[in-house]
Amino acid sequence: MKIHLTSVFVDDQEQALRFYTDVLGFVKKHDVPVGGADRWLTVVSPDAPEGPELLLEPSGHPAVGPYRSALVKDGIPAASFAVADVRAEYDRLRGLGVRFTQEPVEMGAVTVAVLDDTVGNLLQIMNGQ
Predict the structure, then answer these.
(1) What span, in angstroms and rounded, lies between the C-alpha atoms of 129 and 113?
(2) What is the SS3 assignment for 94?
(3) 72-109, pLDDT tens digit by residue?
(4) φ, ψ of residue 72 in degrees (nearest 5)
(5) How many other C-beta atoms can be found within 10 angstroms of the C-beta atom of residue 78?
């Protein structure tokens, strides 16, 4: 068994696509209309184009708002991404205007930082491959 697809709920798919590709550096994999303005919109790592996909899922379901509000209020990231160097990525993203809710913090062998994805979620970056 392996992870094939996971998702984050987003307020605006187009804005999410710009942030996740232009800022975070992911690559669009699928963009399929599914009715109305909603799309099956996924991104992947440029280093693993056949690897796990992240679905930028519309946040229209009534349960999504309270769920995400509670996560953000408590500072809990909706997703976590591995980067080679957390401090370097923090500096790069800050240079692009990304807002962080937690600067890099060392937690034993792991360094983490938390950022706002501009479409309703907090994301964690951590060292690793």
Answers:
(1) 16
(2) helix
(3) 999 999 999 999 999 999 999 999 999 999 999 999 99
(4) -65, -45
(5) 19
